[in-house]
Amino acid sequence: MKKNIITVIYPGEFRSTFVIESDATPESILETVFAQWNGGSGQESELFKQSRVRSFCINDIATINGEDYQCRYFGWEPVTLDYVKELENKVKSHPKYSIGAWFALGDVMRIPIIKPNIIEENLIVERKAVKKVVEKMNDSKTLLKKCSINNRNIL
Asked: What angle separates helix 81-93 from helix 101-108, to the nearest 10 degrees?
């Protein structure tokens, strides 16, 4: 069995590194980590219980053999080490950090931590999708006009 080096990261709050022996896919290992670090899952690891920390949740990070993944509402998103560092810096410098890193993390994640060119690329994709819908609507209007004779619908 392969020894996978895992780190759970609660940005700005907590880190723990351990080994999971498994030949499973990264996705399967991530789901195992999620279960082991969630109170009430019935699969909590001893390390989680001894750490006395909150459950792993959305926006937390898991690292498998140096590859970082952020927990999302559905599944996991690969992220870079630079992203993780920037996220931790933003959490630690957020005004709510003094009452708890988890509160700061929630606010920080409402503010995109992505480069402007990625936002522009997403807008271009969205504009193309809207354009296709409008084109289909126009095609439908043209078809209806062709199928209508003397204001009588022949469909």
From this structure: 120
Do 96 and 103 touch, CB atoms closer than 8 A?
A: yes
Nearest to 64 by CA among 105, 27, 15, 38: 27
Question: What is the C-alpha separation between 106 and 97, in angstroms, rounded?
Answer: 10
Tell me the two tokens of residue 120.
């522009």
Mean pLDDT, rounded, for 13-22: 96
CA 9 – CA 104 distance, rounded (Å):
15
Instruction: Check whether 66 has a pLDDT greater than 90.
Output: yes
Query: Taking the model in full, what pTM does it have?
Result: 0.68
For the chain, the domains span 3-108, 116-153
